[in-house]
Amino acid sequence: MPDIYRVRSASITETGKVREINEDAVLESGNLYVVADGMGGHKAGEIASSLALSVISQYVEDSIGLLSGDKLMKKAVQNANAVIYGKSKSDERFRSMGTTLTALYREGDTAFIAHVGDSRAYLFREGKLRRLTTDHSLIQKLIEEGAITEEEAKIHPQRNIILRALGLEPRVEVEIASVEIKPGDKFILTTDGLTGLVEDEEIEKIVQNEREPDKAVRSLADEALARGGTDNISVVMVEFAASPDQPFLEETHEITTEPATDEAFPAAVEAGAKPMRKKRVSFTIIFLSSITLLIIILGAGAWLLWKNCHFVGISENRAVIFQGFPFWGLARKVSDWNIKLELLPIEDERKLASGGPIELSYEGALENFRYYRRKANRAVIVPNVVGLKKEMAERIIERMGLKTRIEGPPPPSDLKNRIVKSQTPKAGTALGKGRTVEILLDEVLPKKVIFYDLSHPVKRIGGAER
């Protein structure tokens, strides 16, 4: 069925006149449009905003048709938050990074808006501009509480403080709104590099004057630059116009069919063929078509299931997150995070080797990954047993929750008093509980030591003290 809309979009992102790098990011991809304003120090904000767009785009692509539009966008943004938060905790350089995000996802004739932070979404309809989002900022909260006015907010010293962003906490509250699309609607997504310098009334006038999306976003960015360009400036515009080859209200046509008669097949009747033969051919075609359709449906279902299944498995002696099924090579690694297997208890390595449990979302697998990471953080430190007798060394190692194995063939004589010559792994190495420390014993028995009981007189034999 042809689309009832003719969709046009355009985007622009400018560094501005003050900032050295551009930490904003924009996205136009199919039915998904996003702006993000990164923060957190040198290049960290740039990474956060780009990472957010990448994760959301992939999540939407993988989940289309499985979730309703509002749930899809909420899950996508929460997934991006988890990824950014995890990266900020894994590397000191990205410790405080985060990003705002405002996105539009179109499903049929509905636009779903997902929003976190102080970037904004607007709707331009019938010549009027309407704001669709509320800033998650300290200034907005003060305005709502009546502590300051709109005019005072423009010069308030804390106007850049935001109360909500992706990557700052393990979980984030996502604001979701839905708008029924009408022909002629224009949606505008923008970072505060524009709205901090250009008033809503001025944005409305520019959009009224510039009918083409690419010219409109260019004019909006130029206006912010003319006002000083004190921040990165990013704008995305999406226009939904009535499609020229499809009326907005679709027409319906009644289709009638006439039953076939023998007169429709005179040659077959003359040849003595029975009309039922035509029906048998039809049944065969219907049967084969049904089988083909069933195979296609099952294949599509298996593919969708594969796209959504995730689990923690083993790759190159490390625990990582996979997408797909843990058999027949039907999985691919989807995470750069990893845990060294030797840090995990031996029973956990056996579980990971079987590739389970399987989760129906990336978030579920991520929770399992965090569970294993907590176990890895509780790994024990291998003690130093070199120079100790075998029995003592074994007792010390076992008290740490580890096991002992003698390296190489055992010496031929008594092991009880043998001395540990070396150990693998070395002392100070972290190991998961239940894992094994190999010890190598000295092949030479220590010299026999004679202890005297000094409480008794020294015996003399043949005049010599013994």
How does this model look, in words?
Strand 4 and strand 5 form a beta hairpin. This protein is α+β, with helices and mostly antiparallel strands and 466 residues long. The chain is built from 12 helices and 21 strands. Helix 1 packs antiparallel against helix 2. It has a 5-stranded antiparallel beta sheet with strand order 1-10-9-6-7. The chain has a 5-stranded antiparallel beta sheet with strand order 2-3-4-5-8, with helices on one face. Strands 11, 12, 13 and 14 form a 4-stranded antiparallel beta sheet that branches. The longest helix has 34 residues. The protein is flat, with a radius of gyration of 36 Å. The termini are far apart. Helices cover 33% and strands 24% of the residues. The protein has 3 domains: 238 residues, Phosphatase 2c, domain 1; 70 residues, Alpha-Beta Plaits; 61 residues, Trypsin Inhibitor V, Chain A (2-Layer Sandwich).
Fill in the keyword field for this structure.
single chain; alpha+beta; Phosphatase 2c, domain 1; Alpha-Beta Plaits; Trypsin Inhibitor V, Chain A; 5-stranded antiparallel beta sheet; 33% helix
Rg is 36 Å
Oligomer: single chain
The beta-strand count equals: 21
How many helix segments? 12
Helix content: 25-40%
Derived structural class:
alpha+beta
Strand content: 15-25%
Mean pLDDT: 80
- Could you list the spans in which at least 5 consecutive residues all have pLDDT below 50? 245-281, 446-466
How many separate domains?
3
Widest beta sheet: strand line-up: 1-10-9-6-7
Gross morphology: flat
Largest sheet: 5 strands, antiparallel
- What name does CATH use for the topology of the largest domain? Phosphatase 2c, domain 1
